[in-house]
Write a structure and sequence with these properties.
8 helices, three-stranded mixed β-sheet, mainly alpha
Amino acid sequence: MPALPVSGTIAQRAALASVAVASVLLVLKLVAVSRTGSTAMLGSLADTGLDLVASLVTLLGVRVAATPADHNHRFGHGKAEALASLFQVALIAVAAAAIGWRALDHFSGGGGAVGGADYGIGVSVVAMAMSLALIVYQRRAIAQTGSMAIGTDSLHYQSDLILNLSVIAALAMEQYAGIRGADPFFGLAIALWLAWGAWTSANRAIDQLMDHEWPAADRQHFLKIAAQHPELKGIHDLRTRSSGAQRFVQFHVWVDPDMSVAKAHRVMDEVEARLEKEFPGVEILIHPDPEGHVDGAATPGAIFS
C-alpha cells in the first residue's frame, strides 16, 4: 500500500490512541461488571466494547481513506470512512437492543442486587479521565486533518463522559441511597442514548455515501469568494460533495464571450487560488461558459450575476 500523506499519518495515530484507551477500559469494566452486577455498568462495558471495535474499524477506514487516488478510484478512497461508520452503527444498534432488553428484564424482577459500588465508581472515574485525555488529543488531530472518522470517534468518547456519569449515579443511588430501580433505569437510558447515537451516525454516513451537498452556509461562503473575481459575469450549476476528509466542488462560470482561451484559463486559475485560501485541500473543477449560456441538462442551482 502506498505511503500515507501527513494528514493520514496523524489520523492513524489518533485512531491507534483510541484503540489503546478502549482496550484498557474494556478490561477494567469487565471486572467492574462481575463485581457489581450493574445493568448500567453492563451498558458502559458494551459501549466500551463497541468503542474498541469502532476504533479498530476507524483505524482501517482512516488507513484506506488516506490512500491516494489510483487508476480504479480516481476520486480517492475517502468513502471508506463512511462505510466504517455504517459498520459501527450496526454494532451499536444491536448492543442498544440487548442492553434495553436486560434493563426491562431487571425492572420485572429478573435482575439481582447491585453491589461493589466503590469499585464500579472508581472505574468510571478512571474512564472519564482517560476519555478526556483522548478527546483533547483527537481534537488536535481533527484540526489538522478534518477526518470525519476521527470526528465521529471523538463524539462517541464525548458521549462516554455522560454515560460514565450515569453509571456513577446509578451505582450510588442503588447501593448507598437504597433507591431500587435506579440501576435498570439508567441502563435503559444508556440503551436509548446508544440508539440515538446509531441513528445520527447512520444519517451522516448515508449523506456522504449519497453525495449530499455541503451545508448551505459553506456553499454560500464558497460562492461569495468565487464571485469576487471581476472577470466573472455569473456562477451557476454549483455542485458539492464530500468523501471522508476530502471535499469536491464543481461549477460553471459566465465570462465574456470574446475572451480568449488563454485568458479564460488564467482567470480560472486565479479563481481557484482565491478559493483554495479559504477552502484548503478542496478539489475544484470549473467550467467556463459564454455569458448567459446554461446547458440544457444542467441543474442551475445558485446563480450569481
